[in-house]
Design a protein that fits this description.
The chain is of the alpha/beta class. The chain has a single domain, classed as Alpha-Beta Barrel (TIM Barrel), CATH 3.20.20.70. The chain is about 40% helix and about 15% strand. The chain contains twelve helices and ten strands. Strands 1, 2, 3, 4, 5, 6, 7, 8, 9 and 10 form a ten-stranded parallel sheet that branches. Helix 5 links the parallel strand 3 and strand 4. Helix 5 packs across helix 7. About 50% of the residues are buried. The structure holds S-adenosylmethionine, 6-(5-methyl-2-OXO-imidazolidin-4-yl)-hexanoic acid and iron/sulfur cluster (SF4). The site of S-adenosylmethionine has 18 residues, from loops.
Length: about 325
């Protein structure tokens, strides 16, 4: 049984003197993970832009005027080629993202199922983030071999309505339940730097730790403010807040893969090093996230060399469970 944290306890952790916090998180990290290993995931936007939702941070929402290249669903060979390149570059997980509000039962979904099968056959962990799912759709994805479903709760229940009005927090939790019921692992986290309070950050972690079971993977994104979105003028989130959020996540969810996700481009290597020290155990590598820039691949590999980190093999969590 994992510890039942109260919001007050989580807040107390978050507010500890920074170096004390990092030290404690590093200890927890070492008890549960090989500290020198970082999972490298590759992100691919398989369907870009034109989304009907109003997520205030998102450059892919059709209603905002952003400078992105809208693209219909990619073809199977294109996605296969991208995953071959990602694997050759050392990625053990491939995450496919589609700017959909929800999955529809049509030819596009059938094609995504084929993409999942094709990547799975390469012995890579496949993750999809496609918007809301019904129980049946979740089962189809699981049957195709989908290893993980990403569906972020983004922030606290209280702040959610300030960021998204076209769906509810409960819609989000329902999809997470559907993915879980179908037997997939769950990837769910959120974004900091959207104007939320510290209590909202704690509230988000509190929701995540109370999911049963807890998500195997928790992405912590720093908002990438994109011109044309309602959050375009939001101040860059201080890297210290990223470090605090990652350390707190590591302490309250000791077993999870904590992903240092969007926002790395505006972080120095030193700041990222503190995040790895504080328990970040995964990054998205490749010069693009979904639509926004990410550090150059070679720069990340240089960082791994300097910090003495190595990419983690695929399915290591599953193998651990199997023994
Ligand atoms: N449409 C699907 C959905 O909303 O679940 C999948 C794609 S959506 C782009 C995946 C996640 O990317 C969002 O839940 C959000 O947490 C993150 N994201 C989107 N835009 C971002 C931004 N500008 N900065 C940081 N994270 C962002
Ligand atoms: C997640 O939490 N972050 C990734 C992945 N899951 C899908 C997406 C970040 C997107 C950043 C904005 C963009 O590039 O469009
Ligand atoms: Fe659509 Fe997802 Fe962007 Fe929201 S975050 S607008 S659901 S693509």
């Amino acid at each position: 049984m994992s510890k039942k944290w109260t919001k007050a306890e989580i807040l107390e952790i978050y507010n500890k003197p920074l170096l004390e916090l990092v030290y404690e998180a590093a200890q927890v990290h070492r008890q549960h993970h090989k500290a020198g290993e970082v999972q490298v995931s590759s992100l691919l936007s398989i369907k870009t832009g034109g989304c009907t939702e109003d997520c205030a941070y998102c450059p892919q929402a059709a209603r905002y005027h952003t400078d992105i290249k809208v693209h219909k669903l990619m073809s199977l060979p294109e996605v296969e080629a991208a995953s071959t390149n990602a694997k050759a570059a050392g990625a053990s997980r491939m995450c496919l993202g589609a700017a959909w509000r929800e999955v529809r039962d049509n030819k596009d979904f059938d094609r995504v199922l084929d993409m999942v099968k094709a990547i799975n056959a390469k012995d890579m962990e496949v993750c999809c983030t496609l918007g809301m799912l019904t129980e049946e759709q979740a089962q189809k994805l699981a049957d195709a071999g989908l290893y993980a479903y990403n569906h972020n709760i983004d922030t606290s229940e209280e702040f959610y309505g300030d960021i998204i009005t076209t769906r509810t927090y409960d819609d989000r939790l329902n999809t997470i339940n559907h993915a879980r019921k179908a037997g997939m692992t769950v990837c769910s986290g959120g974004i900091i730097g959207m104007g939320e309070s510290i209590d909202d950050r704690i509230g988000m972690l509190y929701t995540l730790i109370n999911l049963t079971p807890q998500p195997e993977s928790v992405p912590i994104n720093g908002l990438v403010p994109v011109e044309g979105t309602p959050l375009e003028h939001q101040a860059q989130v201080p890297t210290w807040d990223m470090v605090r959020m990652i350390a707190t996540t590591r302490i309250v969810m000791p077993k999870a893969t904590v992903r240092l996700s969007a926002g790395r481009l505006s972080m120095s290597m030193e700041a990222q090093a503190l995040c790895f020290m504080a328990g970040a155990s995964s990054i998205f590598a490749g010069d693009k996230l979904l639509t926004t820039p990410n550090p150059e691949f070679n720069q990340d590999m240089e960082m791994f060399k300097i910090l003495g980190l190595s990419p983690k093999a695929a399915f290591s969590e599953k193998k651990k469970e199997a023994v």
